């Protein structure tokens, strides 16, 4: 699938099937055991990604690409950054706007749209947590190279190429296309590096039950 086709499918999924599930998962509401492991893993990954940035972000401009319901974007704004949170799903942005604390309204802009939109401008850093996990390696390489002239670094995650995730990926392809959610595409750091002109650094992998994700850094 092309970048545009995958992007549009992700939008449809999160604006219909997954909206309420995602709203609950990213709240303090009780969730099932499996979803609790996913929630815990996402919290660990969010902390890990933020730890790659300076403690004081005053004066920095950041993009939270695929901000979802906005938790990471809020934390970045609270650390002094001028933050743009963008997500392809208007319904998730609606939730993020309702949750945005009053004290970060002036430093946190939330909007729906494409993270590659050049009108967004230049950023010191971009964080893309679990928003590139549905794309092929060549698409991810193109995304990073597209952003390269407008960013100092991109900190992002991919689904790692583990036996479990590879098995889940193959099983997911057995279901009729109309019944499938967007499928995570497992990658290695070297595979991503082969498709971009910049440098890729492996940071750390987070594993929490059904949540398995690898943090990477891209620098032009």
Description:
It contains eight helices and eight strands, in the order αααβαβαββαβαβαββ. The protein has a single domain (3-219), classed as Vaccinia Virus protein VP39 (Rossmann fold), CATH 3.40.50. The protein has helices at residues 3-15, 19-25, 33-50, 71-78, 90-99, 137-147, 163-172, 189-193, and strands spanning 61-65, 82-87, 108-112, 123-128, 151-160, 186-187, 199-208, 211-219. With 220 residues, the protein is α/β, with parallel strands linked by helices. Strands 1, 2, 3, 4, 5, 6, 7 and 8 form an eight-stranded mixed sheet that branches.
In short:
With 220 residues, the protein is of the alpha/beta class. It is built from eight helices and eight strands, in the order αααβαβαββαβαβαββ. Strands 1, 2, 3, 4, 5, 6, 7 and 8 form an eight-stranded mixed beta sheet that branches.
């Amino acid at each position: 699938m092309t970048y545009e086709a995958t992007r549009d499918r992700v939008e449809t999924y999160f604006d219909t099937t997954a909206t309420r599930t995602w709203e609950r998962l990213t709240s303090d509401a009780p969730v099932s055991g499996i979803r609790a492991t996913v929630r815990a893993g996402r919290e660990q990954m969010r902390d890990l990604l933020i730890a790659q940035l300076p403690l004081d972000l005053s004066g920095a401009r950041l993009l939270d690409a695929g901000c979802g319901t906005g938790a990471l974007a809020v934390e970045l704004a609270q650390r002094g950054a001028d933050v743009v949170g963008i997500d392809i799903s208007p319904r998730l942005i609606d939730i993020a706007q309702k949750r945005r604390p009053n004290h970060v309204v002036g430093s946190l802009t939330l909007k729906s749209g494409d993270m590659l939109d050049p009108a967004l401008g230049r950023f010191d850093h971009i964080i893309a947590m679990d928003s590139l996990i549905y794309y092929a390696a060549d698409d991810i390489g193109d995304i990073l190279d597209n952003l390269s002239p407008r960013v100092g670094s991109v900190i992002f995650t991919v689904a790692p190429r583990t036996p479990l995730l590879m098995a889940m990926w193959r099983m997911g392809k057995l279901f009729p296309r109309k019944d499938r959610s967007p499928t995570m595409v497992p990658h290695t750091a070297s595979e991503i590096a082969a498709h971009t002109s910049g440098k890729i650094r492996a940071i750390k992998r987070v594993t929490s039950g059904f949540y398995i994700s690898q943090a990477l850094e891209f620098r032009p």
